[in-house]
Amino acid sequence: MPSTILITGANGQVGTTLTTELRRRYGSHRVIASDISPPRDAEGRFIRLDVTDGPSVTELIRREGVTQVYHLAAILSANGEADPLRSWRINMDALLNVLEAARTEGIERVFYPSSIAVFGNNVAGVNTPDESILNPTTVYGISKAAGENWANYYHMRFGVDVRSIRYPGIIGHGSKPGGGTTDYAVEVFYRAVQHQAYTCYLAPDTTLPMIYMDDAVRATIELMEAPADSIRRRTSYNLSGCSFSPAEVTEAIRNYYPQFTLQYAPDFRQAIAASWPKSIDDSAARQDWGWQPAYSLERLCEGMITALRKQYEDSAAGAATRERNLA
Fold it and tell me: What is the pTM of this model?
């Protein structure tokens, strides 16, 4: 069992849910959430941290006796294209600061999330294997591909136990998405549950690999809990849940909201999505540490719609209570 876990980028889409699950498993006192600014609803221990400040990263890890780091802080694909050089600096400086602290402070394990953004147009578009040529088309993908190699280097050169997953598009309801190309697949559920139309920035037939948040978080923890000798890939593992297009998820949503309408207005994110695989081969993750996805598109839709309905019902009930108290 880990002694103390540090999560960087804990306010993000993955970080919010991962923090909750790690605290449930290991106890709140063992998990430190960190980010550049405090969360809106702080629960559990939080330390403000600029992960691009190397001395601050090392000092926090040393002071708190951190033994595992989940390094989630990054600028994502769509947002990254607005300022490529800044995105590169932030993504790479933050990773190298964590890896250096892991080396000097004897961190037991580091998790580094990679992405399907590492792939480019030159790979097989269906069942893309782990061992593909990486020729990314965005600064986010470039930084993730470089990060995979840095992770592998720190493992080979210094023995740092770095573990990584290439996340597909992640769909969850715990927090709003943070500027990724696959964010439409989250936004569309919010609009449907609120009985609003949605305009999608990808074309209807743009099929991409996706995964439900519960599966993504479970895979992350399973990878970190696996014995070191079972981790045979020290760059990154492909991870797959299910693949679908905007048209397919719209039809699945219409099983719950038959009147839901969606229009298409592809923008610059269409070119990014077109360079990514339609599906990926995650057989290495299945063989090495037993990965198995639990959520199909149908079950994913059920989970998202059920959770969002409850969120809006609870919000409406809370507003009604406040209104009565003020009356």
Answer: 0.91
